[in-house]
């Protein structure tokens, strides 16, 4: 289950969201030059990824920022940029371009610090924008809980797109991150669940002043929990997505954590 679009385009061009997507893609493509050499990639991660052990020893703090623009594979960046594209534009519309950019960076930095606190001695490099994007999702939940989001449900060979309210999709996502955080070792490779949880909560808290300035609960009453723009209607039909067999790769790659 994952979102593919919402029904609420922003009222103005989301330049910051588009720029962030472009920067992440350009940096990812540039990093592909290291893919064939695990040693070169580990040296690259040592310079630019978030490595909790480094922070605990008093250096590597720049990784809190630079790690937000690195990704560990095609699916990693595709998923993150899809989430940013879906949820970022409406938040940018409400916060303004500069306010939204500062919000995004603050959520990403906060998510990185939460990840460090969850595994301060880990030497596994952590990369990805999803701590910051989780912050965007937390802000979206507070401002637009009833916005409609289309999600793709995949049940073995059944593919179906259904619209659900944003609060349901985001609540399920957050619950999955909490479950993953409690069940998976924080100092191993894989998904940096606590960065997701931390980013989401930080984003929600940072959005509170915006929500209160709009009138708090009165803002929800005026907008009915939707972005204040006309909804876009889509024609729904069953998706026909071909099944692709996975191919095995024999080149060893460094272990990292994705967020």
From TrEMBL:
Q: How does it sit in the membrane?
A: Multi-pass membrane protein
Stored Gene3D superfamilies: Rhomboid-like
Pfam families the UniProt entry points to = Rhomboid
What Gene Ontology terms describe where this protein resides (cellular component)?
Answer: membrane
List the InterPro entries hit by this protein, alphabetically. Peptidase_S54_rhomboid_dom, Rhomboid-like_sf, Rhomboid_protease_S54
Its domain of life reads: Bacteria
**Where is the protein situated, by its record's location annotation?**
Membrane
Major place of localization? membrane
**MF-aspect GO terms:** serine-type endopeptidase activity
Q: Which UniProt keywords apply?
A: Hydrolase, Membrane, Transmembrane, Transmembrane helix
Please list the residue ranges annotated as the Peptidase S54 rhomboid domain. Answer: 63-210
Q: Does the keyword Ribonucleoprotein apply?
A: no
Q: Which family does it belong to?
A: Belongs to the peptidase S54 family.
Protein name from the UniProt record:
Rhomboid family protein
């Amino acid at each position: 289950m994952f979102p593919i679009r919402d029904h609420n385009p922003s009222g103005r061009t989301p330049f910051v969201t588009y720029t962030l997507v472009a920067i992440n893609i350009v940096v990812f493509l540039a990093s592909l030059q290291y893919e064939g050499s695990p040693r070169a990639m580990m040296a690259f991660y040592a310079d630019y990824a978030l490595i909790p052990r480094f922070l605990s020893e008093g250096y590597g703090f720049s990784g809190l920022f630079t790690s937000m623009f690195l990704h560990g594979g095609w699916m990693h960046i595709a998923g993150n940029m899809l989430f940013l594209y879906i949820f970022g534009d409406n938040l940018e519309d409400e916060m303004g371009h500069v306010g939204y950019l500062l919000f995004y960076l603050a959520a990403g930095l906060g998510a990185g610090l939460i990840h460090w606190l969850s595994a301060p001695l880990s030497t596994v490099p952590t990369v990805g924008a999803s701590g910051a994007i989780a912050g965007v999702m937390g802000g979206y939940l507070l401002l637009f809980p009833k916005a409609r989001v289309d999600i793709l449900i995949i049940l073995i060979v059944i593919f179906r797109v259904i619209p659900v309210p944003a609060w349901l999709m985001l609540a399920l996502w957050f619950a999955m991150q909490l479950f993953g955080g409690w069940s998976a070792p924080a100092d191993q490779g894989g998904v940096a669940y606590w960065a997701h949880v931390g980013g989401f909560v930080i984003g929600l808290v940072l959005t509170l002043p915006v929500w209160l300035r709009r009138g708090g609960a009165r803002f929800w009453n005026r907008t009915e929990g939707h972005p204040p723009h006309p909804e876009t209607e889509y024609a729904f039909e069953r998706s026909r997505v071909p099944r692709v067999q996975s191919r095995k790769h024999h080149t060893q790659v460094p272990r990292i954590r994705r967020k």
